[in-house]
Amino acid sequence: MIRKLASSISNEKLIFISIVIQLISFCILSFLSMTSIIIAILGLFLIYSCYSTLTVIINQEIPHHVEQDKASMGLGIYNLINFLGMSFGPTMSSRILGSNTNFTFVLQSFTVLLIVSLLLMLVGTREVNTP
Question: Do residues 54 and 15 lie in contact, with contact meaning Cβ atoms separated by under 8 Å?
Fold first, then answer.
């Protein structure tokens, strides 16, 4: 379904939309999740859906930015970095929760990280587009 959507919308727009939806979802979780379980489930559903979307889009986009004969190496490096991120991310989150038992603080930290990644993405696309 994501590949069909990527054919009608550009990959860059889908990456941007996915990050923005994740940002909104982390804000929902950090500010409203303690009020209702339905809101918490909605926030988690949106985060996981956007993560899957980003994974598919990035795997499609890497071969376009790497030389043809090195595309498999680029995908391998991406998967290695993704694996390391998936192992260190929960570890860092549990350390933050262990030192500061404020669940809202952790979710707001993720929101800040998403804002930084969104800004870096916007700055990177502007640098590529300038002559």
Answer: yes
Instruction: Quote the CA–CA distance of 48 and 107 in Å, as a whole number.
Output: 15
From the list 46, 41, 69, 55, the residue with the least C-alpha distance to 11 is 55
pLDDT value, residue 28: 84
Q: What is the mean pLDDT of residues 76-103?
A: 79
What pLDDT shows up at residue 126?
61
Name the DSSP letter for residue 34. Answer: T
Would the pTM of this model clear 0.85, i.e. be above it? no
Contacts of residue 65, defined as CB under 8 A and 6 or more positions apart, other chains included, come to 74
Residue 37 pLDDT greater than 80, yes or no: yes
H helices of the chain, where?
2-8, 11-32, 37-65, 71-99, 103-129
* Nearest-angstrom CA–CA distance, 129 and 98: 43
